[in-house]
Amino acid sequence: MKKANKKKKRTHVPFRMNMLFFIVFVLFSALIFRLGIVQIVQGEDYQRKIERTEDITVNASVPRGKIFDRDGQIVVDNMPQNAITYTRAQSPDPDEMMKTAEKLAQLIEKETDQVTERDKKDFWIGKNEEKAKMKIKDKEWEAYENDEITEDEIYDMQLERITEEDLRELTADELEVLAIYREFTAGYAMTPQIVKNKNVTDVEYAVVSENLSSLPGVNTATDWERAYSYNNTLKTVLGNISSSKEGLPKEMVDYYLSRDYSRNDRVGKSYLEYQYEDVLRGQKTKMKNITDKSGNLLESEIITEGKRGNDLVLSIDMDLQIAVEKIIEEELGQAKRTGSHPLLDRAFVTMMDPNTGEILAMAGKKYEVDDGKAAMLDFALGNMTTSYAMGSTVKGATILTGYMTGVNEPGEYIVDEPIRLADTPPKSSWFNRGGAFGISDTYALMRSSNVYMFKTAMEIGGAKYVPNGGLKIDLEAFSTMRKHFNQFGLGVKTGIDLPNEQAGYQGIVDPKEPGKILDFSIGQFDTYTPLQLAQYVSTIANGGYRMEPHIVKEIRQPMSDTNKIGPVSKEIKPKVLNTLDLEPGWIERVQEGFRLVAQASEGTASSYFGDAPYKMAAKTGTAEGVYDGPLRENYKNKLTWNVTLIGYAPYDNPEVAMAVVVPWAYESSGNSIPINHHIGRKAMDKYFELKKQKSIDKPVNAIIEQDIVNKKETESE
């Protein structure tokens, strides 16, 4: 029995030891496994934590896309320029930054004009701590010690008590250091900030590059700025971009940040640059910044090379644009030199392809006198941002509205006679002050009959003309006529690919003045923009299709060879906004009327276009109204006349449509000038002259030539 127990005891001890060894083995295995994970899998991360380094990916800006005209002539380019940059650490040391600024100031020249008085005061306090302390009285220090005033309040007192004499202690060299330090602090952490990019000499660039090791955060780079080949031509339409100092517009910071922009990125601020920001911005260079344990930049490494933005090809013919601007300047200047037109200060011309909506020229000039010096300023934007009463040029829309509402028929005769209403001065056509005779729709356009339009508007309003009687008109006539005018583009936005377009202003409908519908019918009630007028005449020229005007013709891919135009990325195709609901032959009546205006001996524009080889169709206009220009405070209730002209050519196969608008051209019939006709004739002549010249000198324009080259290169690849 004892032997059996003894044997059993001997076998029980080794089993427990084995279990213990097994548990120890498992624990050691887990420890070794964990150490393996730490060292092999996570070793790099822990090593980085030990060394306190960090990789931060940032974006660097690239040049924007270029802008060409329809013939491939460069309009807006990027001019490369040397630049000195500074990348601020995540936890910057102000003393270290100041030392770097002092070193850099010895290597470059930095203008100090941007340094503010507050900058100088802050700098003075930093340089003169003891003097700054003496600006505070003993009782104020005592109050500070007793926590009765704060440190910020002490600092504000010091700033307030720094005198002009104190600031004059700052030397020119110290101000230069301050200007550089100011740029250092203006940037965002780990994002390159421009310190200097204007007039960086080759010597400065080279010296800074050689001393980068002793200038932490400083680097040399190639920056760019927008360059305009034609100076101020079309500048207001092209728009502006923000500077690197401005960065993102405050009101759109969140929008741009959500789209991977940096706060100091340059973006389009207005018009074409703004409208096509997504196209022009390009693909940024991605850089990896490596910092030390203090957050200081150690090195930068490019991860992905950037690519400049896509290029825009405009529908604008810059040769035509420049010529038309010159014509406006000459005619406007000539009128101003006579001295009898003090309110005349602007003129506009829009020329477009009536079949595609492509804007060929959009010129505007504004005459201003500043400090006794006269200047002609670019005001091309006025074609779409300002509106005026356009006068008889809208009579084509009135005639067609009469057809579409069923109150008139093509070829119908209406008696032209002075309209005499109760308690109202007579209203008549300029060529018929006292007679009465029947005229057709085409004759009414050719001679610019007011009465034909008055009676059409009366019919639309459900009124019958009774000599010396009252006028009972359904006020819905205003809405009816506006609705139809809108179909031509009058009174609504044209849809041009630019922001801030104006729709014009509607006259106030007063039940006590129903007769204002007569003024509406001859273009002296609502106001329209010159661009709307161009869209309207284009709609008549092409047979009733309201085309959306556009200033960009194509979007092209950038080429590594900056002298070449890249392949087409997107073509802006013609877009029909609406089609007029017309019976066959209706619009031909208006087209014939417009032809007679320019071609028939009695036409109101025949003396200016009758001999033109390109066979013009046109409509003239004069609108009387109260002056509402920039000098209205000095000329309250002053009556002035706007003069306008619309047309297209050739009349039987239109390829170009035009609107000319000259507001406040004169103040009485005695000093009237046909400036609208002069501008219109010269502009049309220039269009066909350039067309002929280019067909001889440039049988294939630059863009088409480049397309052929691109195609051959693609085929060879």
UniProtKB/TrEMBL annotation:
<keyword id="KW-0472">Membrane</keyword>
<dbReference type="InterPro" id="IPR012338">
    <property type="entry name" value="Beta-lactam/transpept-like"/>
</dbReference>
<comment type="similarity">
    <text>Belongs to the transpeptidase family.</text>
</comment>
<dbReference type="GO" id="GO:0008360">
    <property type="term" value="P:regulation of cell shape"/>
</dbReference>
<keyword id="KW-0573">Peptidoglycan synthesis</keyword>
<dbReference type="GO" id="GO:0005886">
    <property type="term" value="C:plasma membrane"/>
</dbReference>
<dbReference type="InterPro" id="IPR036138">
    <property type="entry name" value="PBP_dimer_sf"/>
</dbReference>
<protein>
    <recommendedName>
        <fullName>serine-type D-Ala-D-Ala carboxypeptidase</fullName>
        <ecNumber>3.4.16.4</ecNumber>
    </recommendedName>
</protein>
<keyword id="KW-0133">Cell shape</keyword>
<dbReference type="GO" id="GO:0009002">
    <property type="term" value="F:serine-type D-Ala-D-Ala carboxypeptidase activity"/>
</dbReference>
<dbReference type="InterPro" id="IPR050515">
    <property type="entry name" value="Beta-lactam/transpept"/>
</dbReference>
<keyword id="KW-1133">Transmembrane helix</keyword>
<feature type="domain" description="Penicillin-binding protein transpeptidase">
    <location>
        <begin position="348"/>
        <end position="675"/>
    </location>
</feature>
<comment type="pathway">
    <text>Cell wall biogenesis; peptidoglycan biosynthesis.</text>
</comment>
<dbReference type="Pfam" id="PF00905">
    <property type="entry name" value="Transpeptidase"/>
</dbReference>
<dbReference type="InterPro" id="IPR005311">
    <property type="entry name" value="PBP_dimer"/>
</dbReference>
<keyword id="KW-0961">Cell wall biogenesis/degradation</keyword>
<dbReference type="GO" id="GO:0071972">
    <property type="term" value="F:peptidoglycan L,D-transpeptidase activity"/>
</dbReference>
<dbReference type="Pfam" id="PF03717">
    <property type="entry name" value="PBP_dimer"/>
</dbReference>
<dbReference type="InterPro" id="IPR001460">
    <property type="entry name" value="PCN-bd_Tpept"/>
</dbReference>
<dbReference type="GO" id="GO:0071555">
    <property type="term" value="P:cell wall organization"/>
</dbReference>
<dbReference type="GO" id="GO:0009252">
    <property type="term" value="P:peptidoglycan biosynthetic process"/>
</dbReference>
<keyword id="KW-1003">Cell membrane</keyword>
<feature type="domain" description="Penicillin-binding protein dimerisation">
    <location>
        <begin position="61"/>
        <end position="300"/>
    </location>
</feature>
<dbReference type="GO" id="GO:0008658">
    <property type="term" value="F:penicillin binding"/>
</dbReference>
<keyword id="KW-0812">Transmembrane</keyword>
